[in-house]
Amino acid sequence: MINGKQRTFGNVRPVALVTGSAKRVGRVIAQHLADCGYRIAVHANTSMDEAIRFVECLREQGTEASAFHADLTSEASIKDMVDMVHFYFGRIDVLVNSASVFFPTPLDELTSDDVYSLFQVNTFSVLSCSRFVAQRMQEQSTGGAIVNIADWSVERPAKGFSAYIASKGALVTLTKSLAVDLAAANPAIRVNAVLPGQVLLPEGSGETKRQAAIDATLVKRLGEPDDVAQAVQFLVESPFVTGVCLPVDGGRTVFSGQFDDASVH
To answer: Where does the UniProt annotation place the signal sequence (predicted)?
Structure first.
């Protein structure tokens, strides 16, 4: 939505494909874009029941939407999904690479299968989705916008998550490289990334963990999935912004954990 008005190309509303949008942060991003006037392609793999129910909710709200299945570990499955989305809607204007896998990877327990699993979904699938969607965007005079969801921890890694953080850190370089390559094909294609801080606490987190997450920010509050969704909208709809990796972490990346008094230095 720009200046309170829904985006259209002629009389056609733009289409947003959001991977991993059946639940959690991906669903919030998809809902936010729907509220802004986008038609929504909901992607899921093992959560198709949730995806179908979400589509029903979107349609009840007046949003044109449909659910699409893809196994993001399969390049052929990704290509089929992109082709089906384009066939159904006739265009793809936005791709949000939100799908992700996450689990601890202590070095003394790390296996090659762990590394492969993390990179397959968190990195390789982003490249494949972006590549196939960009082929469609290149055909459009309006181009399109791709937003990757990385992680704030690529700037300040936490212990015990080296493989996960590496898989997300690769998205920073990939985002910038795709921005260059795709602009050469069509200057109206832009690629950016959001680096979210902690916006969803793990299930079973107690008050101590919750307060620690709050104390680690400058704004002294927990992040919300909608904070990420608003950042995605900004990157989607700002035509002079590309190749940017935007932290959305309440200042956690730059905050040392204490406020230093400059007078003592």
So the answer is: none
Is the distance from CB of 145 to CB of 93 less than 8 angstroms? yes
1-10, 20-29, 30-39, 165-174: which range is least confident on average?
1-10
- pLDDT greater than 70 at residue 10: no
Dihedral sign from CA coordinates of 146, 151, 156, 157: negative
Give the other-Cβ count within 10 Å of 79's Cβ.
16
Q: What is the pLDDT at residue 198?
A: 82
pLDDT of residue 260: 54
User: Coil, strand, or helix at residue 32?
Assistant: helix
Is the confidence at residue 262, as pLDDT, over 60? no
Whether residue 38 lies in the annotated active site: no
Which residues make Cβ contacts (< 8 Å) with residue 218, sequence separation at least 6? Answer: 250, 251, 252, 254, 255
Distance, in Å, from the CA atom of 135 to the CA atom of 34, rounded to the nearest integer, reads: 24
Are residues 182 and 95 in contact, defined by beta-carbon separation less than 8 angstroms? Answer: no
Q: Return d(Cα 201, Cα 164) in angstroms, integer.
A: 17
Which secondary structure element, helix H or strand E, spans residue 166, and what is its range?
A: helix 162-185
CATH architecture of the region 15-251: 3-Layer(aba) Sandwich (3.40)
182: CB partners within 8 A, 6+ apart: 130, 134, 137, 138, 146, 189, 190, 191
Q: What are phi and psi of 191, to 5 degrees?
A: -135, 125
Give the model's pLDDT for residue 6: 53
> What's residue 7's pLDDT?
61
Question: Measured between alpha carbons, how far is 133 from 131 in angstroms, rounded to an integer?
Answer: 6
